[in-house]
Write a structure and sequence with these properties.
Blueprint (H helix, E strand, L loop, with lengths): L2 E6 L6 H12 L3 E3 H10 L6 H8 L6 H12 L7 E5 L5 H14 L4 E7 L2 H10 L2 E2 L23 E2 L6 H23 L4 E5 L4 H19 L5
Parallel strand pairs: 1-3, 1-4, 2-3, 4-7
Antiparallel strand pairs: 5-6
Helix pairs in contact: 1-8, 4-5, 6-7
This protein binds adenosine monophosphate.
Length: about 220
Amino acid sequence: MGLNVILMGAPGAGKGTQAGRVAKERGLPTIATGDILREAMRTPGVMAPEARARMERGELVDDDTMIAIVRDRLWRPDAVQGFVLDGFPRTVSQAEALDGLIAERNNGPLVVVDIEVSPDELIRRLAVRRVCGTCGANANPEEPTATACSPCGGRLVQRVDDNEHVVTERLKIYVQATRPVLEYYRARPTFRVVNGAQTPDLVARQLDAMIDEAASAAQPARK
Ligand code: AMP
């Protein structure tokens, strides 16, 4: 039986770090829509200028584009047993479309975990966050003086959308567009909330336990 996981949370909550780890440990692909868009931006001509401009301003890319990206990605062979989604859905329309895609696949429960972090802590984290300019990996926040990416040796840089003005915009959009997605999922028996203001290791342990418990609660009892 497969497993589908969505990690929700504001920018800077730690979704990327936890999604990569959960996916690796469970043999599932991470589908990070921000990474897919940034990758497309590196190849000239792939991304519509409007989508690029929206991303650089910290606004959301339109639902039709995002739903098409996720639909294509979900049908790739490595996602047959499920996925860990990071950064999608960000609007209620995207969440509704995703329910439709999951219903077509019928491959295991959907577990949704919100990684909760206060706005002050998010702003503090985003101001110091650095990523690799070559492979896109997040830099280790416990090594603030490192200049090179530990997996690939690439140069560590600040994301264009992590500057103070754009961060404020992204957090505002998160509250307006994405908080309603939490309400969309909240009543489901497989919705959980983890305190993201703890160390990454502690978040990881609690998150893993929540995913296992929610997934088994969703399975029909075996005789
Ligand atoms: P992220 O790396 O997840 O913070 O995403 C970076 C940017 O990509 C966001 O600020 C949006 O401009 C765009 N983006 C990523 N995922 C989505 C989505 N599901 N819906 C709309 N825009 C998105």
